[in-house]
Specification:
There is one protein chain. It contains 7 helices and 8 strands; from the N terminus they run αααβαβαββαββαββ. The chain is an alpha/beta fold. Strand 5 (144-157) and strand 6 form a beta hairpin.
């Protein structure tokens, strides 16, 4: 089973974690740094299937050190990343130096992007930790252009009681009033994504707005 740090990001609202202190070692987790070529290829393939087929504007919320932002950029998208941790943002800027990417310090639940609109909002392991996930989803949907998509990578991890995470059924229920098309892709069975076998519930939801 993967380390518990797999399920947390610096976007966690209210989490008692010094993410600036953890930033330097954040990429050591296989699915954080994507340093292993097989893990990187696995995430790149998934991301290609989730994001729009042609180049667009992608908002990566809780972007951490920018590993998924880099994959999106390599696939031709223009990326805006947002993270609460200044240190994480610094690493992301370094990782995507010279690319069409901007990184901002801010709250994933209310990203500081003004009136900008995007073709996709990408969020990994963030929504479950927000105090009001439904409100966050509604706000993120308003940041999309018509026909845009929410790409949400979440799960339920470990054996804690109550469980840590957000079940896919709850997430799809929250999306029902705001998205015209919602699909769930189970990810637990693909060890390449995580650097090894996992026993937790891990999944991606792609929700296309009207």
């Amino acid at each position: 089973m993967a380390n518990d740090s797999d399920v947390t990001t610096s976007a966690n609202i209210g989490a008692d974690v010094d993410w600036d202190a953890r930033a330097a070692g954040f990429d050591e987790e296989p699915d954080h740094g994507l340093r292993d070529p097989e893990v990187r290829r696995a995430w790149a393939a998934r991301l290609r299937s989730w994001l729009p087929g042609r180049a667009g504007d992608v908002l990566d919320l809780g972007c951490g050190t920018g590993s998924l932002s880099l994959l999106a950029s390599e696939q031709g998208h223009r990326v805006t990343g947002v993270d609460l941790s200044p240190a994480m943002v610094t690493f992301a800027r370094q990782k995507l130096a010279g690319r069409d990417a901007v990184f901002l310090i801010g709250d994933a639940a209310a990203p500081p992007v003004g009136e900008r609109r995007f073709d996709a909002v990408l969020v990994r392991h963030v929504l479950w930790a927000l105090p009001d996930p439904g409100r966050a989803l509604r706000h993120w949907a308003r940041l999309l252009r018509p026909g845009g998509r929410l790409v949400l990578i979440e799960g339920v991890w470990g054996r804690a009681e109550p469980p840590v995470g957000i079940p896919a059924e709850r997430l799809t229920g929250l999306l029902a009033p705001i998205a015209g098309q919602v699909s769930v892709e189970r990810l637990s069975g693909d060890p390449l994504l995580w650097g090894g076998e996992v026993a937790d519930e891990r999944y991606a939801v792609v929700a296309v707005t009207a």
